[in-house]
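Q: Could you write out the predicted structure for this multi-component system? I'm mainly interested in how the pieces pack against one another.
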Amino acid sequence: MFSDFDFDVISRSMPYMGEGMLFSLGLTFLSMIGGIFLGTLLALMRLSSFRVLNAPAAGYVNLTRSTPLILVIFWFYFLVPLAMKKISGDAYATGIGPFYSALIAFTMFEAAYYCEIIRAGIQSVPRGQSDAAFALGLTYGQGMRRVILPQAFRNMVPILLTQGIILFQDTSLVYVVGLTDFMGAASKIAQRDGRLVEMYLFAALVYFLLCFSASYAVKRLQVKYGAGR
Amino acid sequence: MDFSVFFQPAFSGGGIYLDWVFSGIKWTLLVSILAWIIAFTVGSVLGVLRTTHPVALRAPATAYVEVFRNIPLLVQMFIWYFVLPEIVPEGLGNWMKGEMPMPEFWNAVLCLGFYTASRVAEQVRSGIQSIPDGQTYAGLAVGLTRAQVYRHVLLPMGYRIIIPPLTSEFLTIFKNSSVALTIGVLELTAQARQISEYTFRTFEVFTVATVVYVLITLAVTVAMRALENRVRVPGYMGSGGK
């Protein structure tokens, strides 16, 4: 069945696929940072005892978590240019380009998932720690920054990284708006050269090797962290 | 905002755009529920195999889980739809390309089912492994075989323990069914995009689609919570087991 395989198409398209991979990795990395930052803010809002803070955060997280990622990508593709027109006041503003629309979509989407991880992480820090921080006279902000969050993040590192691997797989969905990530590059070559079998199997293999070794590394890290405590 | 767009005559098909929305909901539900049946069945078998001792049973199940979990769903969708007919024996391949009824739909169901099976397998495995060994020994001590221990002791408890994570997998399958639009299944998200392209009422159309997904989530959550209460073992996982 592999007799009429054209491995040459893969080596020929290597530079183009490489660019796609850089796009995927860049999108993953940036939206992971943005998602963790926004997710931390959302988690602190959800844990707040003020209703004006926790209700909107809970609403946002639950809404986002019940919507498919593809629909969220479509939403932001539609909303970001509109928002740009509003902000710049220029009715003919062309927006900020597809990469940033995708980046905003992924950041906003992942923030909801990171929020839940971080919220659980903060709650796993024993209550005595925040009591002790307040007893020492630290303010809420100081207590969070210097006592609670460092401990919470230490516990969460493996889960945050695992979510990053899931995010990396999810970035392949930018295909639906025609961006050239790794999968987008593979499918463009596949269609141009009529080599669907080779390109899609190759893409699957690359994704598998990357995600499998990354999860293995996270598992090792988890064992190491677990033993250190 | 102008939601009257849904009552305008549709571009094709003779109905109104609301009919397109309902057709989208129908395909979303069909793909998700059929895929869930596959995922639950295959996932349960794999999960049980992963808890058994013989390496000949355990290793293939582990390999399955690793492969299906580490390849993006979109890539798997394309492999089922574009690649599989080319690499299976020629007769079957020709059938898949020519005579298979609704190939997009069935490939989406199979893909989503076998993909989610790997995730269900992990839940089933962790459910079984969270039951204290003493229960297995007790089962064996009263004369049950290994298979009977699974049938009467481990699985009934294991499934109850994993109802909450299974609920979230079941919710994920509805959301993941939108990936089927990439191979041409006109499910809810695809219909929403199509209507917005014909009417330019993007905001209204996406809002309705989002609301439908939220309603599906609510319905599933309520149903699963009811199930959890119904099957709760008195005195075990009481109110704290939620």
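A: Regarding packing and overall arrangement: Chain B has one domain: 19-190+237-241.
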